[in-house]
């Protein structure tokens, strides 16, 4: 039997009413995502790209809405301390109970453009977390049938200096000399849950006075520290709330 015949055989066995019902549910779910997700926190708009890019908080919301949990495995890794090269390939499984629903893959390494100016020996954990995040986003896009709404996190995969953009003078102030973009600044504040003290502390620890002074190569490290401080603050406040 040819490939075409096999495809026709599969189509012949499909219950069209069930397909229509499923497609209707997918469209309804996509509409909910469009209405409830927050730009700058759940997703971002990268100039000159066709689709918004899904961020980690948005991917986590998709899992929560669908009642799924995530598990991660290191598929492959390189930790070369002599050459200062660190690379991780991560698989993210999404499960409903004990049933595996889908999987996503993500990779990151210290030779990416955004990390080349940094100290590779301090970026080992950063690229591991980045690979995990990319795998999570990949899996979330698959499970939610959301690839026609969002794309993978382009902001993490390309150097925005390479993207030709028509910007206002105010926007260029955040991009000059390879510093982070306005949307990246907003995202830092979102990770800090609006806490100026957390942002200031993370910036101070990395040697910066203002958020717009952060180089793109240092962005992930600063965001990671902001997340740590926000989680620490939340844990410290929990006994008071109970």
Radius of gyration: 21 Å
Q: What percentage of amino acids are in beta strands?
A: 15-25%
Number of helices: 9
Shape: globular
Low-confidence stretches: 155-177
Give the SSE string. HHEEHEEEHHHHHH
Question: If you average the pLDDT, what whole number results?
Answer: 79
- Number of self-contained structural domains: 2
Q: How many angstroms does the end-to-end distance come to?
A: 66 Å
Q: Strand arrangement, largest sheet?
A: 3-4-5
- Helix-strand category: alpha+beta
Task: Give the total of beta strands.
Answer: 5
Please summarize the sheet with the most strands. Answer: 3 strands, antiparallel
Percentage of helical residues?
A: 40-55%
What does this entry look like structurally?
It is a single chain. The protein starts with a helix and ends with a helix. The protein is globular, with a radius of gyration of 21 Å. Helices cover 47% and strands 16% of the residues. Strand 3 and strand 4 form a beta hairpin. Helix 8 crosses helix 9. It has nine helices and five strands. It is α+β, with helices and mostly antiparallel strands. About 10% of the residues have low confidence. It folds into two domains: 133 residues, no CATH class; 71 residues, no CATH class. The strands form two sheets. The protein has a three-stranded antiparallel β-sheet with strand order 3-4-5.
């Amino acid at each position: 039997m040819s490939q075409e015949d096999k495809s026709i055989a599969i189509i012949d066995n499909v219950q069209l009413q069930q397909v229509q019902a499923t497609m209707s549910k997918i469209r309804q779910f996509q509409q909910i995502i469009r209405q409830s997700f927050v730009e700058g926190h759940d997703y971002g708009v990268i100039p000159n790209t066709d689709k918004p890019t899904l961020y980690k908080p948005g991917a986590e919301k998709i899992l929560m809405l669908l009642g799924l949990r995530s598990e991660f495995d290191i598929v492959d890794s390189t930790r070369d301390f002599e050459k200062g090269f660190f690379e991780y390939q991560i698989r993210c499984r999404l499960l409903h109970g004990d049933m595996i629903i889908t999987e996503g893959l993500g990779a990151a390494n210290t030779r990416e453009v955004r990390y080349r100016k940094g100290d590779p020996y301090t970026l080992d954990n950063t690229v591991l977390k980045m690979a995990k995040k990319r795998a999570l986003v990949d899996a979330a896009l698959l499970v939610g049938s959301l690839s026609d709404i969002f794309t993978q996190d382009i902001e993490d995969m390309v150097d925005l200096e390479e993207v030709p953009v028509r910007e206002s003078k105010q926007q260029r102030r955040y991009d000059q000399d390879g510093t982070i973009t306005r949307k990246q600044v907003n995202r830092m504040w979102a990770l800090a849950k609006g806490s100026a003290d957390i942002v200031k502390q993370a910036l101070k620890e990395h040697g910066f006075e203002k958020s717009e002074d952060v180089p793109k190569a240092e962005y992930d490290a600063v965001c990671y520290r902001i997340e740590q401080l926000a989680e620490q603050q939340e844990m410290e406040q929990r006994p008071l709330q109970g």
